[in-house]
Design brief:
- The structure holds 2 protein chains of 2 kinds.
- Chain A is α+β, with helices and mostly antiparallel strands.
- Chain A has 5 helices and 5 strands.
- Chain B is an all-alpha fold.
- The two termini of chain B are 43 Å apart.
- Classes of the chains: A alpha+beta, B mainly alpha.
- The interface between A and B is medium-sized, with 20 and 18 residues.
């Protein structure tokens, strides 16, 4: 054995190097941990989460009942029924059911929507105690836009 | 009653020397309590420091910055189900944690936290300490063998092999210190208090004596003591990735917590030996270079200042808490904790307290450095393989400690001869 590696071994240079590295990591500034319920993460605008239906300026629905979202959905989880309005002769959406429990948040429904009514929003806290609650109807989609924040 | 108390306070010695069973019992109970609290603190610090080394936060939820985590842990362990595996030797299984605890705590009898702050001044202190701590192996083997589990048995066997082989190097390193104690007086001592006093007399901690001989002996001991307490990187008996939990695989709840307590108490105990033998025990730093009454006063203020520093840290944490209602309780808790620490610091600055406490403070500060080192090692080093472990023990540490022993003897004899020729009277 040549002299340099031997000396390195005797004076435990490698071990001391390792010790110095772990010591320098102790600064709290390096820490990336997020204190989740108290500190909430920054969510990007294009994040695909909690589905919602946008409303027009006067609170009227933007949906024209075209059924394109239901057709686009690979999981067939959107059920839509529409009727023709006898006066205006326009299609009007009557029931809309979105089953989030089967959703994979691919965003194809959102892209298919011609009026940008349906949107996968930024809400991400969708855990529930029952499967029934995962089936969202029109009322929920239109009015629960933001998830209820945790405060405790 | 009061006069009895005052008489003891004015006596400059240990309860053992004072000859009072009552005071010795009180000291034992106090040491038992303080050691247990220190272990709780140590578990918190270990999780926290280790987390920071791994760029995590560690416990943050129970109390401000997770300060109440040890209490939550202890509570959890106490209410856990206590399982005895089928086919286990019930008596030994029950005895093993008790034996671990007893061996770990018995050694504290001779640890001198200060000149007056030891239970007794035993004339074979070091020998007693080493003997008792070796008994811990027996408890570990008992636990591993009686569990009727392959993992536990493997852990117990590894532990036995490891502790026995490192004890040799450890003992030889200790002998070199015992030789050093005989330098000025002509007769050495094994009493822990005597060793510290001889360091005081010779005007040098034994780590700096005959540089680098003392340092090497200390290094051998420092490595062997990590192996002796089964800590990373020598934690083969409890190697998680190989043996689940090693010798205490089958233990749960309260009995497991006894093992845990025993391990940490043993860590503190072994560090105390190292501090006493090489780092001047309760002596403050630079007693000669920075001598004199004013320096004495300055150094005796250190405990108070330390507590003020901790309080300041709490207040900084209080100020830097996020200004959200959800953090309010935590912030207030941290603030109150800071105030309490500040008050303790103020109490430690009172002259009567200051003089009595400084011994204990310097001793625990030095032990604390070792505790930090233990955590630091665990955060840095990967585990050794068993053959590597044995190679270090027998092929490196043992020859080195033998060489140190011979060198100490030679230098000591030369030193004495020179002193004799110069006609130095003792």
């Amino acid at each position: 054995m040549s002299i340099a590696p031997l000396l390195r071994k005797i004076f435990l240079v490698d071990l001391i190097k390792g010790l110095s590295i772990t010591f320098s990591y102790q600064g709290p500034k390096d820490c990336q941990t997020e204190q989740y319920p108290q500190e909430r993460p920054q969510i990007a605008d294009r994040f695909r989460g909690q589905p919602l239906m946008k409303l027009g300026e006067n609170g009227e629905t933007l949906c024209i009942g075209c059924n394109l979202c239901a057709l686009a959905c690979p999981e067939n989880l959107i059920t839509m029924k529409s009727d023709r309005d006898p006066v205006t002769k326009k299609k009007v959406m009557t029931t809309y059911v979105y089953d989030v429990s089967r959703c994979m948040f691919c965003g194809l429904c959102e892209e298919a929507c011609p009026t940008q009514s349906l949107k996968l929003g930024t809400g991400y806290e969708m855990a529930l105690y029952s499967r029934e609650g995962m089936v969202l109807d029109r009322e929920v989609l239109e009015h629960r836009t933001d998830p209820e924040p945790y405060d405790k | 009653m009061i006069s009895h108390f005052l008489k003891f306070l004015s006596f400059q010695g240990t309860p053992g020397e004072y000859g009072s069973t009552l005071w010795a019992t009180i000291y034992i109970l106090v040491i038992f309590g303080v050691a247990s609290v220190a272990v709780m603190l140590m578990t918190y610090l270990e999780r926290k420091v280790l987390a920071h080394m791994q760029i995590r936060l560690g416990p943050m939820r129970v109390g401000p910055h997770g300060l109440l985590q040890p209490i939550a842990d202890a509570l959890k362990l106490l209410i856990k189900e206590d399982i005895v595996p089928e086919g286990a030797d019930k008596f030994l299984f029950w005895m093993a944690p008790v034996a671990v605890m007893m061996t770990a705590f018995t050694g504290y009898l001779v640890i001198p936290f200060g000149r007056q702050h030891a239970v007794t001044n035993m004339n074979i202190g070091v020998l007693f300490m080493l003997g008792i701590s070796s008994l811990g192996v027996l408890a570990v083997v008992m636990a591993g063998w009686s569990s009727n589990s392959k993992y536990a048995l493997m852990g117990g066997l590894r532990s036995a092999a490891q502790m026995v082989s490192y004890e040799v190097a450890m003992g030889l390193a200790v002998v070199s210190v015992l030789m050093m104690t005989s330098l000025a007086t002509g007769t050495g001592t094994m009493s822990m208090i005597g060793i510290v006093e001889s360091q005081q007399q010779q005007g040098s901690w034994f780590i700096f004596k005959f540089f680098p001989v003392g340092l090497i002996a200390f290094a051998v001991f420092a490595i062997a003591m990590v192996a002796e307490t089964n800590r990373a990187p020598f934690d083969l008996p409890e190697a998680e990735s190989e043996l689940t939990a090693g010798f205490h695989t089958e233990y749960s709840g309260f009995r497991w917590s006894l093992f845990f307590l025993g391990e940490y108490v043993a860590m503190i105990g072994v560090s105390s030996i190292a501090v006493t033998l090489w780092l001047g025990g309760w002596l403050r730093p630079f007693p000669n270079a920075l001598g004199g009454a004013s320096w004495d006063t300055a150094f005796s203020c250190a405990p108070g200042i330390l507590f003020f520093g901790l309080a300041a840290g709490c207040f900084i944490g209080f100020a830097r808490m996020p200004k959200k209602p959800s953090f309010k309780v935590q912030a207030i808790g941290l603030g109150v904790f800071g105030v309490v620490l500040g008050m303790i610091g103020a109490a430690l600055l009172v002259p009567a307290v200051r003089v009595r406490v400084q011994d204990i403070f310097w001793f625990s500060a030095k032990v604390g450095v070792f505790m930090y080192l233990y955590i630091w090692y665990r955060g840095t080093f990967p585990r050794y393989r068993f053959d590597q472990l044995m190679r270090i023990g027998w092929k490196v540490l043992l020859p080195v400690s033998l060489a140190v022993l011979v060198l100490t003897a030679l230098i000591g004899v030369r030193h004495e001869l020179v002193a004799g020729l110069m006609g130095v009277t003792r």
